[in-house]
Design goal:
The complex is a heterodimer of chains A (588) and B (256).
Chain A lengths: L3 H25 L9 H27 L12 H21 L8 H7 L6 H25 L2 H7 L8 H70 L7 H6 L1 H9 L2 H13 L10 H27 L11 H15 L3 H16 L1 H26 L10 H23 L8 H6 L4 H31 L2 H22 L19 H28 L4 H26 L28
Helix pairs in contact in A: 1-5, 2-3, 2-5, 2-6, 3-7, 3-10, 5-7, 6-7, 7-10, 7-11, 7-14, 10-11, 13-17, 14-15, 15-17, 15-18, 15-19, 17-18, 18-20
Chain B lengths: L1 E10 L2 E11 L4 E5 L6 H9 L6 E6 L2 E2 L4 H6 L1 E4 L11 H11 L4 H14 L15 H13 L5 E5 L7 H16 L3 E5 L3 H7 L2 E6 L2 E6 L1 H8 L4 H8 L5 H13 L3
Parallel strand pairs in B: 3-8, 3-9, 6-7, 7-8
Antiparallel strand pairs in B: 1-2, 1-4, 4-5, 9-10
Classes of the chains: A mainly alpha (588), B alpha/beta (256).
C-alpha cells in the first residue's frame, strides 16, 4: 500500500511536470517562420496582439458608439453579432495557422515517451497550452472593445449595479466562449480528419485540407471587410433580405456567431432577437467539441506509439524508368540540371513543411478568386464575359504560387546535409539555377496554366482560353525570372534567416506593386485579346526579355558570384561609408 | 600525394586545429585518432574542401587545392561524421542525385546503385525514404555515395558508426582493397582496434596539435607499449579514467 505521503508526492511531481510541459507547448505555439529569436518572438506577438486590440476597439467604437446617446433595449444584438463574427473569424484563422502545432507531433512523442510521463499529463498540458493561447488572443480582442459593451449597453435595460456587474461577467464569458468555439472548431475538424483518415493518408491530405480551410477563412475575412467598408446592402440589397426574412432563420441555424449572440442575450434574461433558441446549438457545440477533442487527441497519441515506416514499393519500375529516361533525355540533358530538378520535385513531394509553406501562399491567392468573382463579376452577370477581373485571376494565382515557391525554396531541408552540394559543386553554376527554373516551370507553372486553359475553355471558347493561358504562362515565366534574378541558392540547401524580407517594413510598396502588376498585365491582355494576331509577337518579346535576363545572369552575375550556402545576416549597424561611397570604391 | 602544410583553423578566435602538417601517400590507410573536440573532423572537412584553413596550405600532387577546388573535389570521396543525409529522399534518389552532381550517366548510375545496394543489403529498402532507416542503413548509403565515382582520395570520418558487425567487416576489407588500388585513404575513428588492424600509419591529434605520427609498430617500439590503446592513453588521456568513472557514479547518486 502506498502511503498518503507517497501519493501526495507523486501528485505534486505530476503537477510540476504538467507545468513544465504546458509552458513548453505554449511557447511552441508561437514559434513559426516569422521569428527566429525568443526576444523577437515576444516583440512580434505583442505587436500582433496590440493590432488586434486596437482594431477590435475601433470596431466596437464605430458600432456601439450610438448607444452612448440612445438606450439599448435589446436591439444591439446585430452589432454584437457583427463584432463577434470578427472575433470568431480571427480565432479560426489563428487555428489554421497553428494547424501543425495543435496536436503533439512525432518529435514530441519521440522526446517525451522515454521520460516518466503519463499520457494524461501530456494531453492535459497540450490542452491547457491551447486554452492559454486562445485565451491570450481572446483577451487582446476584448481588451479595448469590452469597455464599450460593458459601459454603454447595460444602462438602457436596467440602472441596477448588479445588472451592470452581471452584464460585464456575461459579456466576458460569452466572448471568450465564442473565441474558444471558433478556434476549437478547427482543432476538432483536424482531429476528426486525423482519426478518420489515419495518419498516413492524413499526412498526405493535411496540406490540401489546411489550404482549403485557409482559402475559406480568408474569403470570409475579405467578405467581412467588404461589408465593413461598404455595408451589407452593397452585397445583398436590403429589400431582398426583407422579402426573404423567413429564410434568414435557416441561415442562422448554420451561423455560429448568431448562436453565441443568442446565448449572450439569453444569459442577460431578455432576448429580443428574432429566431431565439439557437443558443442551444452553442451549448451543444461546446460540449460535442470537448468530447471529440479528448477522443481525437487520445487516438492521435495511441497511434503515435506505433512506429510507422515512411516509404513505398514502386510498381512498374521498368515503365517508370523508361518514362523518366525519356523525360530526362528530352528536357534535362545536363546532369546537374537533372539532379537539381529531381531534388526540387522530391523535396516538395515529401516535405510537409515546404508543401505547407507553398500552400499558405497559394491559399492567399485562391481566397481572392471567389472574393473577386462574387464581389465584382456575379453581381453584374459577367462571369462568361472577358473582363479585367476574369483576366486577372490566373495572374493572381501564378503570382501567389511564385512567391510561395521563392519562400519555400529559401528554407532548407536538412541543412546539415548540404555538404553534398558543396562537395560536388562544379564551375557551371548556371546549370544549378537552370535546373531549379525548369522544375518550377514544369512542375508548377505549366500544370497551373493547363488547368486555367481547361476552366476558361468551359467559360469562354477554347482558342481564347488558349491565348489567355499562353499569355499568363509567358507573363508568369517573366515574373519568375524577375523574382529569382539574384537567387543564387540551390533550392532548400541554404541557411535561412527569418524576417530578412522585412515584410513588416515593405508590405505597402509590395502591395502597391502587386496591384500595379495586376492592372497593367490584365489591361495589356485585354488589348491583345481584342486583336489576337498580336499574341505571337507579344509572346516572342516576352521571351526576348527572359533571354536578356538570362544573358545578364550568365555573363555578369554568375561570373562574379558563387552558389550561396549560408545566408548572410543583416548588419547590426549600417554605416554610411562616406569615405568611400560606391562610385569611388574602385578608385580607392 | 595529399599534403597538409602547417594548417590552422580558428572558429572566431578559438583554434580548432593548430599548425597541423602531414602527408598522405597513395596505397596507405592512415588512421586519424584523437579525443572528442581534438580537431579530427575539422581537419577532414578542410581536406574535403568543405572548410577553408585559416592558415597553411593543402596540396594535392604538389598543387594547392584551393587553386582548382572543383577538380580536386571531383576526385574526393567523403563520409561525414554524423549521418548527415537528405533523409526525405530514398537511398535510390539520394545516390542518383549525388551521382548526377558528380557527372555520372544515368545508365551507369543505375547499374552502380543497384549493385551497391545489393552488396550492402539494402535492395528491398532502397525506395523507402531514409527517414525510416536506422543509423547503420544511412551510413551504408553515405559510404556508397562516397565511392560512387571511384575517387582517388577517400576521407572517412567515423565510417563504421552504427554499422552491424558483418557490414563493418565488409568495409574494413573494402578499405584494404581500395588501398591496394593506390587510393589515398584517411580514416578517422575512436575505435582503436579497427585502426590498429587496418591502418598502416597512425596520426594522433590532441587539442588541435599532432602528438604522434608513425606506424603502430614503430610507436609501440618507441614508447615501449604493447598496444595502440596504451599508446593513445599515454599520449592523450591526461586524467585517470577510473577516477573519472568513480566521480560520475558519485554525481548520479547525489540526492541533494
Amino acid at each position: 500500500m502506498r502511503s498518503a505521503r507517497d501519493v501526495l508526492s507523486a501528485a505534486s511531481f505530476e503537477v510540476r511536470q504538467f507545468r513544465i510541459l504546458t509552458r513548453h507547448f505554449f511557447l511552441r505555439l508561437f514559434k513559426n517562420d516569422l521569428v527566429d529569436f525568443e526576444d523577437q518572438m515576444k516583440e512580434r506577438v505583442i505587436g500582433v496582439l496590440a493590432i488586434l486590440a486596437v482594431f477590435s476597439g475601433l470596431l466596437a467604437y464605430v458600432y456601439l458608439g450610438q448607444y452612448g446617446y440612445m438606450p439599448d433595449k435589446g436591439q444591439s444584438w446585430i452589432e454584437k453579432m457583427f463584432i463577434m463574427t470578427f472575433f470568431m473569424l480571427i480565432m479560426g484563422l489563428l487555428a489554421i495557422l497553428e494547424w501543425d502545432n495543435i496536436h503533439p507531433d512525432a518529435r514530441d512523442y519521440s522526446n517525451l515517451n522515454p521520460l516518466p510521463l503519463r499520457a494524461r499529463t501530456i494531453l492535459a498540458a497540450k490542452f491547457t497550452s491551447l486554452l492559454l493561447f486562445v485565451g491570450l488572443f481572446a483577451l487582446s480582442l476584448n481588451l479595448l472593445s469590452s469597455p464599450f459593451f460593458i459601459f454603454l449597453l447595460p444602462w438602457g435595460r436596467s440602472p441596477s449595479l448588479f445588472f451592470f456587474l452581471g452584464h460585464a461577467a456575461v459579456h466576458i464569458l460569452i466572448m471568450f466562449l465564442a473565441c474558444f468555439f471558433s478556434f476549437f472548431l478547427y482543432v476538432v475538424l483536424l482531429g476528426l480528419f486525423q482519426s478518420l483518415l489515419g495518419s498516413k493518408i492524413f499526412g498526405k491530405a493535411s496540406t490540401y485540407l489546411r489550404s482549403l480551410f485557409l482559402v475559406l477563412q480568408l474569403f470570409l475575412i475579405l467578405t467581412y471587410l467588404r461589408i465593413l467598408v461598404y455595408g451589407l446592402s452593397n452585397l445583398i440589397p436590403a429589400d431582398r433580405i426583407a422579402n426573404n426574412f423567413s429564410k434568414l432563420g435557416r441561415f442562422f441555424d448554420f451561423y455560429p456567431p448568431f448562436w453565441f449572440t443568442d446565448l449572450y442575450e439569453s444569459a442577460l434574461g431578455s432576448p429580443r432577437l428574432p429566431f431565439h433558441g439557437r443558443y442551444r446549438f452553442a451549448l451543444i457545440g461546446l460540449a460535442v467539441m470537448g468530447v471529440v477533442f479528448i477522443f481525437s487527441m487520445g487516438l492521435s497519441y495511441a497511434r503515435s506509439m506505433k512506429r510507422t515506416r515512411i516509404g513505398y514499393k514502386p510498381r512498374l519500375r521498368k515503365f517508370r524508368w523508361f518514362m523518366a529516361a525519356a523525360f530526362n533525355g528530352l528536357f534535362l540533358r545536363n546532369r546537374i540540371q537533372r539532379a537539381v530538378f529531381h531534388f526540387y520535385r522530391k523535396t516538395f513531394r515529401s516535405s510537409v513543411f515546404h508543401r505547407m509553406r507553398l500552400a499558405t501562399f497559394l491559399a492567399c491567392g485562391l481566397a481572392f478568386v471567389p472574393f473577386l468573382i462574387t464581389m465584382k463579376v456575379v453581381r453584374k452577370g459577367h462571369l462568361f464575359d472577358i473582363n479585367l477581373t476574369m483576366l486577372s485571376i490566373p495572374l493572381i494565382l501564378s503570382f501567389a504560387l511564385l512567391l510561395g515557391l521563392r519562400s519555400a525554396a529559401s528554407v532548407p531541408v536538412s541543412l546539415e546535409a548540404n555538404w553534398v552540394f558543396r562537395l560536388t559543386e562544379r564551375p557551371q553554376v548556371r546549370h544549378y539555377f537552370a535546373g531549379h527554373r525548369k522544375a518550377m516551370v514544369m512542375t508548377n507553372l505549366i500544370p497551373l496554366f493547363v488547368l486555367v486553359f481547361a476552366v476558361y475553355s468551359v467559360l469562354w471558347d477554347p482558342p481564347t482560353a488558349f491565348n489567355h493561358a499562353l499569355y499568363g504562362l509567358a507573363i508568369s515565366i517573366l515574373t519568375m525570372e524577375m523574382l529569382f534574378i539574384r537567387f543564387l541558392k540551390i533550392p532548400f540547401s541554404c541557411s535561412y534567416l527569418p524576417g530578412k524580407e522585412k515584410m513588416q517594413v515593405f508590405w505597402l510598396p509590395y502591395l502597391l506593386g502587386f496591384i500595379a502588376y495586376l492592372n497593367i498585365t490584365s489591361r495589356i491582355e485585354l488589348e491583345l485579346l481584342r486583336s489576337p494576331s498580336q499574341f505571337v509577337p507579344f509572346v516572342i518579346s516576352v521571351f526576348l526579355m527572359v533571354a536578356a535576363i538570362r544573358a545578364y545572369q550568365v555573363f555578369f552575375l554568375y561570373k562574379r558570384n558563387r552558389i550561396r550556402y549560408e545566408e548572410e545576416p543583416e548588419p547590426i549597424m549600417v554605416g554610411l561609408d562616406y569615405k568611400y561611397p560606391p562610385h569611388k570604391r574602385n578608385q580607392a | 600525394m595529399l599534403e597538409l602544410k602547417a594548417i590552422t583553423k580558428r572558429y572566431s578566435a578559438i583554434p580548432a586545429v593548430r599548425g597541423v602538417s602531414f602527408a598522405l601517400k597513395p596505397g596507405e590507410i592512415t588512421g586519424y585518432l584523437g579525443p572528442n573536440g581534438a580537431g579530427k573532423s575539422t581537419t577532414i572537412k578542410m581536406m574535403a574542401g568543405l572548410l577553408d584553413p585559416t592558415e597553411g596550405e593543402i596540396l594535392y600532387q604538389g598543387h594547392p587545392i584551393r587553386k582548382n577546388m572543383f577538380a580536386y573535389k571531383a576526385i574526393v570521396g567523403y563520409v561525414p561524421e554524423q549521418s548527415e543525409a537528405y533523409r526525405h529522399l530514398s537511398a535510390w534518389d539520394y545516390l542518383f542525385m549525388v551521382g548526377r552532381l558528380r557527372g555520372l550517366s544515368d545508365v551507369l548510375l543505375r547499374a552502380k546503385v543497384t549493385e551497391l545496394m545489393h552488396f550492402f543489403g539494402l535492395s528491398s529498402e532502397m525506395d523507402m525514404a531514409m527517414a525510416s532507416y536506422s543509423k547503420g542503413m544511412v551510413q551504408k548509403v553515405l559510404i556508397s555515395s562516397a565511392l560512387l565515382h571511384d575517387p582517388d582520395v577517400i576521407l572517412l570520418d567515423e565510417p563504421l558508426s552504427g554499422l552491424d558487425v558483418t557490414t563493418a567487416l565488409i568495409v574494413k576489407d573494402l578499405l584494404v582493397l581500395l588501398a591496394r588500388e593506390k587510393k589515398i585513404i584517411i580514416y578517422s575513428s575512436h575505435i582503436l582496434e579497427v585502426v590498429e588492424k587496418i591502418c598502416s600509419r597512425v596520426i594522433i591529434i590532441d587539442k588541435g596539435i599532432i602528438s604522434a605520427d608513425d606506424s603502430v609498430e614503430n610507436l609501440s617500439h618507441l614508447m615501449n607499449l604493447p598496444s595502440l590503446e596504451e599508446i593513445f592513453s599515454r599520449l592523450v588521456v591526461s586524467e585517470d579514467p577510473g577516477l573519472t568513472a568513480r566521480g560520475i557514479v558519485e554525481t548520479i547518486r547525489r540526492e541533494s
